[in-house]
Write a structure and sequence with these properties.
globular, 276 residues, 16 strands, mainly beta, eight-stranded antiparallel beta barrel, five-stranded antiparallel beta sheet
Amino acid sequence: MPPAPGDAIAADWRAIPDDQLLVIDLAGGRRVVIRLAPDHAPVHVDNIRKLARARWWDGTSVYRVQDNYVAQWGDATEQKPLPADVVANPPAEYEFAARPLAARLSLPDPYALRAGMTADGWPQLTGPYRPDQATDRAWLPHCYAMVGVARDLAPSTGSGAELYTVIGHAPRHLDRNIALVGRVIQGIEHLSTLPRGTGNLGFYEKPAQRVAIETVRLASDIPAAERPGFQYRATDNARFAAYVRARENREPPFFTVPAGGADICNVPVPVRPTPR
């Protein structure tokens, strides 16, 4: 049987490099895997790789879970020193030079004139409506499961030691105000279903409520026989274009009114474990 419109074929799946996979093992045998975005926030991602290789996160915790917003992790005490080679305040990597879009959405995004996906599988927004902003700059959106760098008030940009992931409605007002460094591609349920913190902004009020982080490693530093592998779906072909159109116009019998478009966050680029 031929594939349905939008279905991928074997050649559409491309490997995610092992050094782009951040593997977090939480207490209780729960694993979270993040795909890092080194081309979009290179200094922050370099910090994250250094922190993982220094095993800095081992023994830290998930210490904030705010309903319909974010889950955040790192050193709850804010006393743990950073490795000497970590840049405490990298450049504000909130935007980057726009890349060609391999697939585009039919309608403009509410926050940008152009929205789509790059050939390497990331959502990208360009062309802000404000006339005082450059149109050759682009940014990643704060969609569900995207990972950002927690920071203090500007000019702080955050080192990458304290990270969060979106677990609710996409907080798009954060776009271009915080460095986005990746996306959770496996195990988001281990963060999104945690008990909500009852302190201000969802912080856990008691240390016993925190969820222990046992280890954080780059997949490239895990023995080959044990490391996880993942692939993302190629966006530069007619099958993916059909997938986008299908997400924009859901069909009967359930849907009776096609939307004619979709929010960038409602057209995620599929990811799957590497077939064994």
